[in-house]
């Protein structure tokens, strides 16, 4: 059974250029990825300053990207995080939201995702209010597909510690009150799940009354700790049998858009091969296709340093040696490794708290 694959550009930290975004889109479209949601946490006009419009130049880029998606046969969407709107969904909030939705319609948004993640609720009827917001959005948007991310998007108790204890029967209430065609994102048993199993997805689907869309937090590497590691290996812990319990599977990509395509291609291979999938072989296939034999072999030799050790545990001598090695390659993937070694992709706690 096949499952629709997609990208949710939903990480914290430095944003990609539009050229980087276009390159990744074209690569993944060729390998069966069917939707792309633009939702970087660093875009303030989708999150903390959502009531303001993007500058004209950024709007033009979004329009052009939407057209490219259409040309590539990929559904284009935007993830809008109207910051903590569920605490005060009043007339003023509705008026601002209506204005924002008109702008998104003009851009050419096909899928509109309303993202309630990483916000602290104060209302006593969280699920009901969020379902009400989705119904209102559907009535005022020209999008054809609607999705949402719950405030509690995982079983992970870290969400309760950071955002307050989740309401009883939150998922059941959300599933009962949302329209049946609204897609619901879920990250698994943890925010960054090591493994996602059919049994877990079936339980979540039963609670929601619909199959969830997996928001997979691999290969994302934002945050102070993760940004010190490159996530390059092929996907593991996502058996192809999950497809029976999913409405879609979207990856949250790494901060490095060229390198992120390596694991992205292995996910497609995982679903294609099913029980015959081998993550090491899949890495080899993807890396050689994207980077060429020589650079792919070099990264394979260095993967313990790049992914496992990370910048914290690399000696200055080892970092200098790696920089010397990758400086010899004229390839954007090597450039990303060079930038990572220089600390250009470091995500601070302040970024996470303010974006």
Count of extended strands: 8
| Count of distinct structural domains | 1
CATH level-four homologous superfamily name = Glycosidases
Annotated CATH topology: TIM Barrel
Q: Please, how many helices? A: 13
* SSE arrangement, N to C: EHEHEHEHEHHEHEEHHHHHH
Structural class: alpha/beta
CATH top level label? Alpha Beta
Helix content: 40-55%
For this entry, what is the oligomeric state of its chains?
single chain
- Poorly predicted segments: none
> Rg to the nearest angstrom?
20 Å
Broad shape: globular
- What is the mean pLDDT? 95
* Cα separation of the termini: 38 Å
Q: Label the CATH architecture.
A: Alpha-Beta Barrel
> What's the main sheet like?
8 strands, parallel, barrel
Q: Give, in spatial order, the strands making up the sheet with the most strands.
A: 1-2-3-4-5-6-7-8
How much of the sequence lies in strands comes to 5-15%
Q: Describe it for me?
A:
It is a single chain. By secondary structure, this protein is α/β, with parallel strands linked by helices. It has one domain (5-288): Alpha-Beta Barrel (TIM Barrel), CATH 3.20.20. The chain is built from 13 helices and 8 strands. It has helices spanning 18-29, 56-72, 91-107, 126-140, 158-163, 170-177, 198-208, 261-273, 279-291, 293-313, 316-326, 332-341, 349-354, and strands at residues 5-9, 33-38, 75-80, 111-115, 145-149, 183-186, 213-216, 248-251. The protein has an 8-stranded parallel barrel with strand order 1-2-3-4-5-6-7-8. α7 links the parallel β6 (183-186) and β7 (213-216). α1 runs parallel beside α2 (56-72), α4 runs parallel beside α6 (170-177) and α11 (316-326) packs antiparallel against α12 (332-341). The longest helix has 21 residues, at 293-313. The chain is globular, with a radius of gyration of 20 Å. The model has no long low-confidence stretch (mean pLDDT 95).
């Amino acid at each position: 059974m096949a499952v629709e694959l997609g990208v949710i550009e939903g990480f914290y930290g430095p944003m990609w250029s539009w050229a980087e975004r276009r390159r990744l889109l074209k690569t993944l479209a060729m390998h069966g990825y069917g939707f792309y949601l633009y939702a970087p946490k660093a875009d303030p006009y989708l999150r903390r300053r959502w009531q303001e419009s993007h500058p004209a130049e950024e709007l033009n880029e979004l329009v052009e990207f939407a057209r490219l998606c259409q040309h590539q046969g990929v559904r284009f969407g935007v993830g809008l995080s109207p910051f903590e709107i569920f605490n005060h969904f009043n007339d003023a909030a509705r008026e601002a939201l209506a204005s924002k939705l008109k702008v998104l319609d003009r851009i050419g948004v096909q899928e509109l995702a309303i993202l309630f993640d990483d916000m602290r609720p104060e209302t006593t009827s969280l699920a009901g209010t969020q379902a009400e917001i989705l119904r209102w959005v559907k009535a005022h948007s020209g999008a054809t597909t609607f999705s949402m991310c719950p405030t509690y998007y995982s079983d992970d108790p870290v969400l309760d510690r950071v955002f307050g204890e989740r309401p009883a029967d939150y998922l059941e209430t959300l599933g009962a009150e949302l329209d049946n065609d609204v897609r619901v994102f879920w990250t698994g048993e943890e925010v960054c799940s090591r493994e996602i199993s059919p049994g877990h997805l079936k339980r979540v689907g039963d609670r929601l009354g619909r199959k969830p869309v997996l928001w997979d937090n691999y290969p994302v590497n934002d945050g102070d700790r993760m940004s010190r590691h490159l996530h390059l290996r092929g996907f593991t812990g996502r058996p192809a049998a999950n497809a029976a319990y999913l409405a879609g599977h979207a990856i949250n990509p790494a901060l490095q858009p060229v390198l992120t395509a390596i694991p992205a291609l292995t996910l497609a291979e995982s679903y294609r091969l099913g029980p015959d999938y081998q993550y090491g072989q899949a890495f080899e296939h993807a890396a050689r296709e994207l980077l060429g034999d020589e650079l792919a072999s070099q990264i394979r030799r260095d993967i313990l340093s790049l992914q496992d050790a990370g910048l914290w545990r690399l000696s200055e001598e080892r970092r200098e040696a790696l920089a010397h090695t990758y400086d010899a390659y004229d390839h954007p993937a090597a450039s990303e490794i060079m930038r990572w070694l220089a600390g250009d992709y470091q995500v601070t706690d302040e970024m996470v708290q303010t974006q």
